[in-house]
Amino acid sequence: MAKLNFIMLSFVVLVVAIICVPSFAVEENELKKLWDQCVVKISPNCALKIISQVFGDGVVSIPCCKELVQEGKECHDTLVKYIADRPSLIGNESKYLKKRDEVWAYCVSVSKAVSPA
User: Fold this and answer.
1) Buried-state track 16-48, b at ≥16 Cβ within 10 A, e below 16
2) Rounded to whole angstroms, how far apart are CA atoms 69 and 104?
3) Would you state the pLDDT for residue 116?
4) How many CB atoms lie within 10 A of CB 69?
């Protein structure tokens, strides 16, 4: 199981580093800060589900919403913005940023609804 988690985490890192983050837009120190403060706070499975919902037609589960809310809005906004700034995606950036905000609002609402009082 640990090996599978490592493989999934490696895949997410590969997706973010190679496909999603244009190297010319982010300095190495910024990437390390983003990694240290954001990416490691969320499971690879949930990261993929969130990316899938923002950039495709995936659906984020309630447990993944809880992880996203714990990760924080600043991390969510920053990561999605870096992905949306990719040259192949920039033409639809406003659509992706709108979906980013919708995912955040949904996750906050479901996280509050299922939180113990």
Assistant:
1) beeebbeeeebeeeebeebeeebbeebbbbbbb
2) 8
3) 61
4) 18
Give tens-digit pLDDT for 64-88: 999 999 999 988 998 888 888 888 9
How much is the pLDDT for 10? 39
Dump pLDDT digits (tens) for 8-54.
443 444 454 444 444 444 556 766 777 777 878 889 999 999 999 99
Which residue carries 């996203």 as its tokens?
Answer: 68
**Token pair for 26:** 């982010």
- 41 DSSP assignment: G
> Are the C-beta atoms of residues 85 and 25 closer than 8 Å to each other?
yes
CA-closest candidate to residue 6, choices 44, 32, 63, 49: 44
Tokens of 97: 């940023």
The pair of three-digit structure tokens given for residue 20, joined into one six-digit string: 């999603």
